[in-house]
Amino acid sequence: MQTSTVAANRIQVLLRILKHNKYGIRNGNIRAYTTNSNVTIGGVTKTIKDATHPEYVPRDYYQEDQGQSTLHHLRWMMQKDLLGQDIFLIGPPGPRRRSLAMQYLELTNRELEYVSLSRDTTESDLKQRREIVNGSATYFDQSAVRAATKGRILILEGIEKAERNVLPILNNLLENREMQLEDGRMLIPADRYDDLLKLYSKEELDRWKLVRVDKDFRVIALGLPVPRYTGNPLDPPLRSRFQARDVTVNSYQ
């Protein structure tokens, strides 16, 4: 009896040490719970909406036996999503950053638009492309425009490779939720569009070529730490648009 009491006391002392140590090791684990209507990770809950186009939702990325490091990252992403903030996952080369983004989209049933940035990425790759259809030029919306108007999540991979000519477009889209399109339309944030809709009719706004950016539109940027790796350091204005998180390999905790 005395031996068990001593052992219990030692365990309690050890738990107190782990709880208050400077490395932030926690004695409690977080769990993920999913239902048909919501998903909860470590006390953070998000309502799940039905996808308009289920084929745009990633599949077979999320597994039930995820480690604690992954669950902590997913909970942090859910918190930023609920606050309406864009996310920047930064880490070493490898599939972990993309895998985390895909797991979050699958877990929350969100539709995906994907853009891989490179030195050759131009404005047309983000906004619109002009193609010849039946002898006439027609504009086709690209991933960034489709994500903004349909309320999807836009994944920008390799953001450290973005050239200076596309940074103003990204800055305006991230900060103001605005974008001037080649066909004359103008993307404007949802709040401003709704205020105009109280004063003018939908037909008038369509005649002015104003397009509403969905409130559920989010951006998840994936990048490498520069200058440790090859790339362009992010401009402070662009860097300030994101809530960043260092996504390294799984920690011991």
From TrEMBL:
One of its GO terms (molecular function) is ATP binding. Residues 86-242 form the ATPase dynein-related AAA domain. GO terms for cellular component: cytoplasm. It comes from the Eukaryota. It holds the Pfam family AAA_5. This is ATPase dynein-related AAA domain-containing protein.
